[in-house]
Amino acid sequence: MGTPHIDAGPGDFADTVLMPGDPLRARYIAETFLDEVREVNSVRGMSGFSGRYKERPISVMGHGMGIPSVSIYARELIVDYGARSLIRVGSCGAVRDDVALRDVVIGLGACTDSGVNRSRFAGMDFAAIADFELTRHAVDAAAALGIPVKVGNLFSADLFYDPRPEILDLLKRYGILGVEMEAAGLFGVAAEFGARAATLCTVSDHILKGGSLSSTERQSTFDDMMLVALETVMRDDRARETAT
Ligand SMILES: O=P(O)(O)O[C@H]1O[C@H](CO)[C@@H](O)[C@H]1O
Ligand SMILES: O=c1cc[nH]c(=O)[nH]1
């Protein structure tokens, strides 16, 4: 098998995939948190790995930057490789005064200036929301780990270098917790193909107040968020077992 962007074989991916934008962050997660790791994709350098966390098969793969890129990888993982749950583990910028560098935010939903969800939803406004169960388990996992999180709305921007500085105050006024570039598209793809998606982000810079983490820090220092994401999967499994 194989797709235009993934050359893994059947069964190479677990049903749950953690997805950072940065493929080097994917490698870091796999090498730091998973056992029995094997690389299952390297097309275009978009590293994908499968391994085990506490015996549970789990995959991690980069999705690149922006909604077009995450839309390709999310669709191929769901449709061609049978992924059922995608958890983005990203970085974001803050606009609110009460959101600081390294805060972990969990997206309930994501606003966007992208038109992709209108394209897929017959021109209507689609509410790009995270899967409730995954999100609830992420919040509970964070609490159990003693890792503070903020839960609320994200903004998925089409432009990293946006020439409209005035929108930042608008985002702040509307309570946006983090500005990133994929969640709204990921939620749209998951809805289109009947999968589940969640987004966790660590704040890597404060867009209004200033201050930022280095690219190396963004690549390999988001361990709190990774633990929350991995424990989310474990909690989600336990909840599903109990329900059946
Ligand atoms: O660090 P990642 O997960 O890539 O997330 C954020 O960083 C990139 C921009 O620098 C965008 O992909 C944005 O969503
Ligand atoms: O997309 C992003 C990611 C981090 N910081 C930003 O300002 N935007």
Folded structure, characterized:
- By secondary structure, the protein is α/β, with parallel strands linked by helices.
- The protein has one domain: 3-Layer(aba) Sandwich (Rossmann fold).
- It is built from 8 helices and 9 strands.
- It has helices at 23-33, 67-80, 116-120, 132-145, 166-173, 183-192, 215-220, 223-243, and strands at residues 16-19, 35-41, 48-53, 56-61, 85-94, 104-112, 149-156, 178-180, 196-206.
- A 9-stranded mixed β-sheet has the order 2-3-4-1-5-9-6-7-8, sandwiched between helices.
- A hairpin with a 6-residue loop joins strand 2 (35-41) and strand 3 (48-53).
- The two termini are 33 Å apart.
- The model has no long low-confidence stretch (mean pLDDT 97).
- It binds 1-O-phosphono-alpha-D-ribofuranose and uracil.
- Residues 91-93, 160, 179-181, 204-205, 207 line the site of uracil.
- InterPro entries: DeoD-type, Nucleoside_phosphorylase_CS, Nucleoside_phosphorylase_d, Nucleoside_phosphorylase_sf.
- It catalyses: a purine 2'-deoxy-D-ribonucleoside + phosphate = a purine nucleobase + 2-deoxy-alpha-D-ribose 1-phosphate; a purine D-ribonucleoside + phosphate = a purine nucleobase + alpha-D-ribose 1-phosphate; uridine + phosphate = alpha-D-ribose 1-phosphate + uracil.
- Its EC number is 2.4.2.1.
- The active site is at residue 205.
